[in-house]
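Possible race condition, two jobs.
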Amino acid sequence: MNVRNLNNYYIWGMKALIFVIPFLSFWIAKSMFFPYITARNFAFRILVEIALALWIGLIILNKEYRPRFSPIVIAILVFAGVIGLANFFGVDPYHSFWSRLERMEGYLMILHLAAYFLILITVFRTKKEWLAFFNAVLLAGILVGGYGVLQVLGLKEAIQGGDVRIDGTIGNPTYLAIYLTLVIAITLILLFNAVKSGWRWFYGAAAAFFFFVLFFTASRGATLSLIISTPLFLVLYLMFSGKYKKLAIFSLVLIFALPLIFWTLKDTKFVQNSEVLSRFASISLGEKTIKARFIIWNMALRAFKENPVLGWGQENFLYAFSKYYDPRMYDQEPWFDRPHNIIFEWLINGGILGLASYLGIFAALFWGIRKIAVRKLAPTNENIVLIVAPVAYFLQNIFVFDNFNTYILFFALLGYAHSLVQQDQSVSVAPNTVIQEKSASRSLAGLLAASLIMLPIIYFVNYKPSLAAKGIIEGLQSTASSVDPVEKTLKRFKTTIELNTFADNEVLEQLARVADLLISQESIADNLKAPFLQYSITQMENYLKKFPGAIRLHLMIAALYQEASRFSPNFIFKARDHLKIALSLSPKKQQILFVVADNYLKTAELNKAIELLEEAVELEFTYRDAHINLATVGIYSGQENVVRQSIKNLDEVRKLKFDKNHPDHSLWDYIVDLSKIGDAYLRIENREGARSIYNRILALEPEVAKYGVGLDSYQNLLKKFD
């Protein structure tokens, strides 16, 4: 075989695979569980694995294509090595390596990103090749942004953004914002390298388009990042670039003036009536989600102190979150598997060594950019973009975390910076004939060996788990079958679990939800429920023997046992065993205390239930549900002193939660809480108790009247008692 042709086959084969990767961000696979995550990650891995086999053949054939070491290359390899070590010694090495369908990260992502980086710096040897790849990134960005515009127009639904924020095909407004930030940086690189004015206008318009879409993500992290990175860009432009200085000065003044103007107008109807602008106007340290971030970061800091050197390993923040749960998080999402801060992310994942190795990548990148600038290997404006882009990217990640869509762009920028540093070194592709012939044979043998290794990797690492992701969806769809839904659902889940993949945890969680739903349906015969229930419990118990720290699964199987106690009273105590384990894993999580108390309530151990609920009240006094639950058990046990104290506490919470901007909110919350206590009296047919509660509500009518409403519904309830 002609060696030069073989060389080209390798190069063009890898390029063809790599050029597909940016367009994966546009792919939504609704047939798979987590449609915005799973398919594109599986595809990315497969593309990289095939390209890696070709890469091995190429570097055997032609030593000139072997990676040249630079601080950037070394930093990435050190990072991969440190995180691998942290995962090995972490809390849950299995999931640290494999991750879960919901994230598709873990060490597998690190390994594939490192391989992706090496392939990029191998196949793109000239700036022209890099700019061609960046044009593909730009085109993919236009497709993603265009989908976002359809969401702005109401023609497509934003899955997580709702009616206020768009998420494009990324599936999350904040992720979309970070993705667009990097796409804008790449677009500006293209702009500053364009020779023809027509292309410059096109790239300028594309950048403006991306900023337009970015605005409708209403991402406050992106806004804060732009407030810092845009002035940085303009200052560097004024310092080092000789063109359009007056425009830059005007833009800089405008950048500083806009926040002040916006802050002055934030309470006007124009801002408040805009769903996007009002979200920006709500930015404050006291805002609910921002307060939650600070609480989570404090939890992460405490967890880091427990394992400061190598951390907990990737994908293990849920263990830390459970152990160091702060009761003030009661009104947030029940589970966080990320600290939503890139610094704490890597402190948890890899300890101080992991964070240092991660920051080392940025240090190496800035080393490369400095070298590019000193040696004038790129236009001045491009150097400025290369400086500002990682700053903007890092600043946004202080409030969130990375994902596939941002990883591939950031590592592309790393590869580009490395290649610019290396670009003045000549590339020889014509070794002497004797070496060529020997190299060709060795190369093809290496390609064959690599392919034989990659095929089972593709099958076990990607294909089987992708079937599991599809199997979950098919199992859920089977529940709606018009013919024998129970048997079809059970069969589908059995097939999925038999795949034995890293997705088993999520498969079992969905199986538990379906089983719980089926058991509660009276229309389904017990003889159909029993096999489904038995299979579900058996599979979950087997899994928990291998992964006893899976707290969510402990709670799910406990709920399943408790719901199935109608079949066997002993199931109540099996549920309690799992609830106790869950409580030991997260002793300060009130929701767990609630379900444990409910379990004791079912066995008429009322004093134990009250003890647990009193503990929940003490953990965080402002948690209204804790007081309501305690009052309810007090009603069931006939302990009126407990009920009276709970009502008194709720009134105190009402005062503590008073918001001068929304003075009626705490009042209506209090009325709703009292109604729930009244309903508890009615459930045990204690009409006098209910009457006392509704009279208490009606006594609030003068306060309610201030807001132009009445309490007629409660008046009508009292009339029914007469």
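Job #2 (started ~2 s after job #1):
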Amino acid sequence: MKMNKLYKLATLLFGASVLATGCIQESVVMNGGATIDQIKDSDFGADGMVNAITAILISNNVYGGDYHDDFGYPSIFGTFDRAIGEVFPSNAYSGGNQYYDRFQFYHYQFGIGPNGYCGIVWNNYYKFIQAANDLIRSCGDDPTVAQQRGVAKAFRALFYLDLARLYDPLYAESTERPTYQADLAAVEGLTVPIIDENTTEEDAKNNPRRPREEMFQFIFDDLNDAETCLANYKPTAKNIPSLAVVYGLKARAYLWLGGFDSSNYAKAAEYARKAIDTSGATILTEAQWLDPKTGFNTPNNSWMWYVPQSPEGVTNLVNFVAWRSCEATWGYGQLVQQGVHVNFYNRIPDTDWRKRAFIGPDPDAWYEANAAISNYAANAHGEIFSDYFSPYASVKFRPMNGETLDWKAGNPTSVCMMRVEEMILTEIEALAYTDPTTAAAKLTEFMLTRNPNYSFVSSSTEAVVAEAIWQKRVELWGEGIVFYDMKRLNYGIETGYVGTNVATDSRMKTDGRAPW
């Protein structure tokens, strides 16, 4: 690809993708200028459309209504983490206003109807799909733009894989909804409608939810084509999917399907290993994880795929840092103090350095021990650390360069979409179903890089899977990944217990997967 010319068309093509009605096949006029065919004929048009896909991932207010929690793909991570109770306002129990947290709706499950907050998720995904379809249609079968088509196919596979897992209705216990089982029977095995580059307006008028098997065949068709197209392609930046990312998406897909046919777990392990080996990525170190200037805001050796944010497109409140970073004084993060519940925190051993990313029960004591990894400064924020940070709040996601006062400088970070640690833990879980002893050994090897005192002695499938998922919850906390694991494995939510720091109306205990 002529990636050096990418950014020249970023604005033009991003606007085109937003304005196009391109979920249907037609000659779309791009920003009042070139048609898609004309874009294809230019020497850098397809590359510009690749960049348009990455740009639309961080578009704001797609749903309409100026919701501050509608900031594209990164906002969906917040949706999923809130729905499973892994991320919540840590200051609410001590008197803070949890209602600054707009993601609360996905936990309480109100305002989520067809005309409610779920529309943010739905509209964003199909807008992403529209951008991918535009590029796929533009490229066609032309071998000179095969790599661009492969990139678009990988993006589209990601979007449909997310939607398929999100809307795949599974059994749940619900005493408060007696019609749940009847409702489930009516839609069991169905995912979402497929809109591809050939869907016409007439087709779209009668486009029902597709069965799981059909949907995953569509996803694998895209991934297989992407694998062929990207076989010899190395992107200049990790905001563009590589062959390793294609393997990672296959691993995610087969892991989901393993819940319906256990033979798929072997494929999940195979492709997770391919993703690891092909990526050349290495796991994050303690210094990288806890770096106050670059921690989880800058692409590194671990990240395989990420969403970039440019300073030009970032607002003060409608973006990832403003919500996720408790250190950013201008955003909801400071007001909400997103963190973990007490039992989650206590379950992490003190010898596991990942625990240091969560402020302990005594914030001032935590700061005294961890001042070197904090961006707090008394002259900027006040005299007492605990006046600004709640117990169990997180400092995992840092503002850019550790900037806590200037939103223009602190907000434009990058957001990770896939990293090698996910693939390692995916391989471990998938192996556990057929070779739990090997899986346990790999888990121990990985965990010794996080906790030098780690010890795991069981080698039963159930125990290895449970431990791998727990470590995944710690490792990928706040990254929007674990929702799918909790759902597919029928894991419950338990945030209501004696000594919890969760606000009264947020305390949950579900018997297996939550009905929502």
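The chain is about 45% helix and 5% strand.
Logs attached separately.
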